[in-house]
Amino acid sequence: MSTMQIFLFLIIPTAILGIVAQARVQGAYKKWSRVGSRSRITGREAALYVLQKAGITDVEITATRGMLTDHYDPKNKRLVLSEANYHGHSLAALGVAAHEAGHAVQHATGYSMLKLRMSLVPVTMIASQLLPFIIIGGFFFGMLGLIKLGVLVYLVLTIFQLITLPVEFDASRRAKVELVSTGILQQDEMEGVNDTLNAAALTYVAAFVSSLANLLYMLALARRD
């Protein structure tokens, strides 16, 4: 199999998967952001309730600009919600807010996979910074050294993405349980939360598959050289 055939077989399908995953999460979020919850509780309030139930009092909840820019910062113990989810009371907003609160609960309880992911962040950042040089030098100029380095870079990224999967899945599981157990949402409202969070989960799966495909491609290039 030629290098081009390997590229077409590995990289193109994963790129399409990534596009589909992004379209899926944006579509689900857009759909359910139009459906308000009966409780009229905002995303900030939902996240706060989840934290309080877990006995967490040292996590700051803040708002930021952008769409789906929500994240939990374990270093500073800060739960950051996009403005739409911070102030909004839609099913999508509550699902995303509770998901990020789930990460804070993971952090507070010492969830092993989150601790492992956090420990890999420094080396993953270095690998990400090297990635542009790998792509330019390895793919277009066929520089053997960069191809071998590319294998290492994508190995780090693939491991990180693999560890990210259980972290994200667990946060979504916690979110779904807590939204109902706290009375924020009724069971018949969970369709919107499930659809939104399941779509988001697909993006993490796509990221892992993409990293794995690139790792296999770099290994194929390295073996040919």
What can you tell me about this protein's structure?
The chain is mainly alpha-helical and 225 residues long. 74% of the residues lie in helices and 6% in strands. It has one domain. A 3-stranded mixed beta sheet has the order 1-3-2. Helix 2 (43-53) packs parallel to helix 4, helix 5 packs antiparallel against helix 6 (144-181) and helix 6 (144-181) packs antiparallel against helix 7. The chain is elongated, with a radius of gyration of 20 Å. The two termini are 14 Å apart.
Short structural summary:
The chain is 74% helix and 6% strand.
Give the helix/strand class.
Answer: mainly alpha
Q: Span between N and C termini?
A: 14 Å
Please tell me how large the radius of gyration is.
20 Å
| Tally of strands | 3
Count of helices? 7
- Helix-strand string: HHEEEHHHHH
Q: Strand fraction band?
A: 5-15%
Largest sheet: 3 strands, mixed
Strand order of the largest sheet: 1-3-2
